[in-house]
Amino acid sequence: MHPPHLSRRRALAGGAGALAAAGALGSLTGCAAPATAAGPGQTLLRFWHLFGGGDGVNMQGMLEEFRAAHPSIALEATTLQWGAPYYTKLGMAGAGGRAPELAVLHLARLAGFAPGRLLDPFDLGLLAEHGVQEEHFPPDIWRRGQAGGRQYAVPLDTHPFVLYYQTEICEKAGLMSGGSLRPVNGAGEFADALRAVKKATGRPGLVTETFGADCITPWRLFSTFYSQTGGAVLSPDGRRLALDDTKALRVLEYLTSLVEEGLMVRRADYPACVSIFNEGKTAFHLNGEWEITTYRNAKIPFSMTRVPALFGSASAQADCHTFVLPHQAGRGGAPDEAAHAFVAWMLRNSVAWAEGGHVPAYLPVLGTPEYLALKPQSEYRDVIDDVALDEPAWFAGSASRMWIELGAVLSGALTGSRTPRGALDEVKARLRTLLDTRNPLPGAAS
Amino acid sequence: MTTTAMAPVPAGERTGGGRPPAARTVRRAWTEHGLVFVAPFLLVYALFLVWPLISGVGMSLTSENITGAGGEFIGLDNYAEAIRDPEVWSSLWNTVWFTVLSTVPLVVAGLGLALLAHHLRAVQWLWRLSWFAPYLLPSGVVCLLFLYMIYPSDFGLADQLLASVGLEPGIGWLGDERYAMLSVVATTVWWTVGFNFLLYLAALQAIPAHLYEAAELDGAGAWHRLRHITLPLLRRTTGLVLVLQVLASLKIFDQVYLMTGGGPDDSTRPILQYVYQQGFTGYRMGYASAVSYIFFALILTVSLVQPLLSRRRAEEAAK
To answer: How far is CA B252 from CA A85, A293, B164, B268, in A?
Structure first.
């Protein structure tokens, strides 16, 4: 019996390969893929990722295109639940040495992921054969993928914190010029803009996730503005506390003052804050860029831009999706080569990925007409040079303990159960505890 | 002999000497037989309860991570760290507070509903069904029901109810530290009261009717009958309900995990969730084991102390 997606690939190769069809069929792949998906003469390539929602649809489309272009590779993709469950599973698979050929990892989590023990390094020669080289990436982001002189993570994108805005409301509040938001410089101007919105609509002008289960946006928000002051949370090696009280307090007091003045919604969990923006009840929304698909599908009049520079520089909190090779006891041979070929193909075709809002990390894509035609995605692409990633520490990165714990503490400051000072003290105490705790997954190369 | 009647001798032994086996042989044969029957259970018990208990203690003395590799023996360091860890104490307090808040209404409401169902003679099956039905739902269903129907501040039933009696709606039932724990308690009471209700109802039905008849002849009113007949005769059931309820409430995890994730600001996070976070998000299996053994000690104390107390009460009552 032929595995079900073989016949599908033939159908696609036969000229019916419209992306829409691929997307519709793609959802079947997950449950239909048998244990051994490789047909005769095919190389099995297993790929784990954590992309749901709009990202999931984009990813499925790309995977189907890859399948159509590579009949000799049987690609078996598994979508796992985002966050801590994903990383638990990935870690255990690597520890057992029976991991899939390829997986996705957030770059800031690399330090805690035991490169050399849970992850295998990339073969840069093999990547180069497929046209992917170090100079194709922003140097900082490429370097963050290294440990012990080897390349463990190859970045696919950067996903920064951005500012979404309702064009019609901003127009009414007199904040637009020439079809886009007038530049906002400094914390005072931003507060004024929010006041103008409040005057025009009678409602708070800004919404962002302030509480909820495993709520991490308060951390992203703080990290964004704190990085703009030039402050660092940890020392560059991720081993010591480097939080600057004065700068951190400035940011926290500013954010709480926005809430106190009624310029920002005090209580909104993630779904609520998306629906508040979606229903046009507010003008501004601070979040990761990935919700673009949601707002696109809702056909609301919105656009997005970089987070304005409120405290100095215009940097924004970010993390990167990267490809990694989870540790396999006998890595090598055709499956490993297929994994390298897949990574290179995905990078070269990451315009499709950029539709979901992410800024491709593969620089040659950033200059292509296809990418530049993506609006508003390509308008904030230069943020890739100003992103603030967590310092390399085992407890940092997307869905990490640091994010979840500090997210809860900072949520208290935004919703009013903690004072800015109290929240800052608690943040420092939590960070000290994390720093004093032994890395539970000590890596060979970190 | 009664022994032979109770335990037939195996065929192999009966073909032995031809004379009737001595009583002692029979008893041993019976024991061996018993072991064969009990063995599967013992095996499962040893494999899934005794062994994890022992290996858990071992793990709590190491720095083992989630991959099961790289753990070194570190003695009591994990316990020392746990005792100094404010998160352990705050989440332990949340667990105890939840237990206090939930046990009282669950026992009282269980009794109240049982009394109602016992005395409402018409369509009794309907009362029984409606009060016990929620208990049959999985916790995931219950939590979603409350998350999407009862608690949302825009259209939730809870706010509608407040508005209908003229109170200010718009309460963040699960997002406000003042109400989050109470909301989880309310959900739990609605969901699990059926079990206590059933225990009480069974006990009520076991009270002989002639006691009430005699009391009525002596002129005792409804309140006196409740105070002097029903409640004293339910004492044993109340003891059982109380222990079972305290133990069940101490093990709170799923409602909180699904409804608030432990928030806002960790204000509803129970100790079991902290164990989960340390073990599965933080990868520290050794430390998570140590924390769970501290919790285990608490549960063990409760389950040992309660029967002691109730026995003493029973002895005093007998005097």
So the answer is: 20, 38, 32, 10
